[in-house]
Amino acid sequence: MKVTVIGTGYVGLVSGTCLAEVGNEVLCLDVDPAKIRILEEGGIPIFEPGLQDMVRRNVAAGRLCFTTDVEKAAKYGAIQFIAVGTPPDEDGSADMQYVTAAARNIGRHMSDYKVIVNKSTVPVGTADAVKAAVNEELVKRGVSVPFSVVSNPEFLKEGAAIEDFMKPDRIVVGCESEQAAHIMRTLYAPFQRNHDRLILMDIRSAELTKYAANSMLATRISFMNELANLAEKLGADIEHVRKGIGSDPRIGYDFLYAGAGYGGSCFPKDVKALIKTAATDAGIDLKVLNAVKAANDAQKHVLGAKVKAHFGANLEGRHFALWGLAFKANTDDMREATSCEVIKDLLEAGATVTAYDPVAMAEARHHFPDEKRLGYAENQIGALENADALIIVTEWKEFRSPNFDSIKAKLKSPIIFDGRNLFEPVELKGMGITYFGIGR
Ligand SMILES: NC(=O)c1ccc[n+]([C@@H]2O[C@H](COP(=O)([O-])OP(=O)(O)OC[C@H]3O[C@@H](n4cnc5c(N)ncnc54)[C@H](O)[C@@H]3O)[C@@H](O)[C@H]2O)c1
């Protein structure tokens, strides 16, 4: 099949590449010429394990191409995936300008039947808006070209995006045309050979499913974070509690870790957008989700508060090592990352920071341009030089079993603030390290 992917970011590039991997001919469009240039030169503009090799392989096979040419892209694919960003607007709602622009571009140039697929996370009702935008452009041109709009939200996780796309738990397709449903089934057949995982539903339900999924996961995290804060006060250990409840199959172990708050490009914005949609479009105050958001906003400051509780509110003259900038392991994405809040809390209190992250340091420089009090180290041990304590924010694998002797030798005093509960408090105490976890 011939597929156009509009928006070549985390979702667009992974989706386009995986669709090419199973034999489709894919053209990825982006408005950012710098991104397309990197791809054309054999690089990739994001960090995602395994993606670079897969991109190269499919480019070499002639199945994957990149362009900034809107007309060419609109004419190319019988299937047009919209995978552009939907960042939060000032009021928390999803900013739909990129989705609308993508839809209009299709309408301006299409000349035969298209299945237009919303893969971006979009509020309920967006398929109708996309349909209207395409129709307006067709009317302007004085032509009538048939098309169907489909909602196909994406559930991939950064860091495991290829695995998620190639072996999906489910493929949600919201559709009101049999022809489009058949095309979507055919397109996804190679990804579900051992059993059917495609869940066909109406478009509005598919749109809401994506927000419901992210909101549920965010709810579990905020719930555990609140319980962790309570466990600390009551002298309990949240890690024991986690195991105790996760063993109940009705609860399960996933997304049950207490930590320093969720971040990333999806949970914070999707929770906000659902709260906003509910309030403005339906007059409903989503009390649970409002609490999830408030709990998470507060949790991002727990590490900073622990540091200040130990060293005093004024951190003038103090220096800290910080391991982990990305919002989670295996990505360079720092959108709404907890590290940003921790760094700001420390700098505002007068401290200086040396950070280390295996892949996100270039990204961090965009978030903190010209910040002289924030430095970067070449490796994790190097970050410890002259630091009063180590603060761990991201659960990178290489942080899980560090050389504690080196940590003790490098730090001014052996103190670790661990925002991801990577270590056992008793063991660290035995090594003479003062250890602060979350909820322990
Ligand atoms: N990142 C994730 O893990 C993830 C997972 C599931 C769903 N989503 C959703 O998928 C969507 C895309 O997310 P992302 O993280 O890939 O975003 P991104 O910011 O990485 O990529 C979006 C790309 O779209 C491009 N773009 C914007 N307008 C365009 C236009 N009119 N034509 C062509 N290209 C255009 C941008 O230049 C950018 O490269 C969002 O709605 C997001 O919520 C993201």
Q: Would you mind describing this structure in some detail?
A:
Helix content is 44%, strand content 14%. The protein is an alpha/beta fold and 440 residues long. A six-stranded parallel sheet has the order 3-2-1-4-5-6, with helices on both faces. Strand 12 (389-392), helix 16 (404-410) and strand 13 form a beta-alpha-beta unit. Helix 9 crosses helix 12 and helix 11 runs antiparallel to helix 12. The chain starts with a strand and ends with a strand. The model has no long low-confidence stretch (mean pLDDT 97). It binds nicotinamide-adenine-dinucleotide (NAD).
In short:
The chain has 440 residues and is an alpha/beta fold. It is 44% helix and 14% strand.
Question: What is the mean pLDDT?
Answer: 97
Q: Report helical residue fraction.
A: 40-55%
Structural class comes to alpha/beta
In terms of per-residue confidence, which ranges show pLDDT below 50 for 5 or more consecutive residues? none
Could you describe the largest sheet, including whether it forms a barrel?
A: 6 strands, parallel
Computed Rg: 24 Å
Spatial strand sequence of the major β-sheet? 3-2-1-4-5-6
**How much of the residues is beta strand, in percent?**
5-15%
| Oligomerization state | single chain
Whole-Å distance between the termini? 53 Å
Number of strands: 14
Instruction: List each distinct ligand once.
Output: nicotinamide-adenine-dinucleotide
What's the tally of helices? Answer: 17
Using the alpha-carbon principal axes, give the shape: globular
